[in-house]
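Input record, target 12 of the design panel.
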């Protein structure tokens, strides 16, 4: 019976290739930025992508504005080869990933496998520290009083741009909550070229 169900699922997917697009969204278990997670998730699901939420703990992750997201996969159990795109979401809690070797390893493996890699808000600093943005164009969150993430990008050889969203090959970066919708649309644009 299980094989019959699996074959029906494969037939359905064959007629709708967009159903095979799988996106892993990595968030901090505490204090991810709500809009940067929920808006892209909704837009990507509307484009028929299958979303899995990834974090350092299972259960309900809580955003900086109080939104709750069910975590599907632990960070150390993420098999990136199962996905068409891997996205890092920003917010205060994402700062812990900036110097996290596991987050760096994931970003590096995504780059090696030629999978779409996205990051929004301060999360591009994670990619920069992982070495995957060197020589690439990217943007990152900043404000007039806080420019440390821009400094990280520049120190890591990134061609920093002050635009809301930047696409460089299969890497998409965005500079914060206001760019969440454009970030998702850019991910879809790059996915559609595959």
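The sequence produced for target 12 reads:
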């Amino acid at each position: 019976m299980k094989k019959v169900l699996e074959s029906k699922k494969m037939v359905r997917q064959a007629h709708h290739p967009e159903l095979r697009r799988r996106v892993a969204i990595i968030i901090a278990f505490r204090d991810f930025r709500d809009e940067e997670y929920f808006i892209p998730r909704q837009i990507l699901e509307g484009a028929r992508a299958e979303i899995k939420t990834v974090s350092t703990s299972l259960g309900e992750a809580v955003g900086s504005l109080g939104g709750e997201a069910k975590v599907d996969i632990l960070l150390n159990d993420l098999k990136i080869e199962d996905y068409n795109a891997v996205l890092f979401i920003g917010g205060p809690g994402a700062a812990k990933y900036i110097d996290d070797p596991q987050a760096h390893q994931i970003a590096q493996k995504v780059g090696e496998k030629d999978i779409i890699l996205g990051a929004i808000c301060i999360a591009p600093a994670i990619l920069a520290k992982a070495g995957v943005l060197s020589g690439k164009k990217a943007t990152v969150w900043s404000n007039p009083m806080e420019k440390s993430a821009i400094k990280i990008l520049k120190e890591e050889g990134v061609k920093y741009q002050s635009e809301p969203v930047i696409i460089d090959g299969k890497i998409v970066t965005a500079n914060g909550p206001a760019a969440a919708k454009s970030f998702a649309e850019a991910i879809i644009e790059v996915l559609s070229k595959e």
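The chain has one domain: 19-192.
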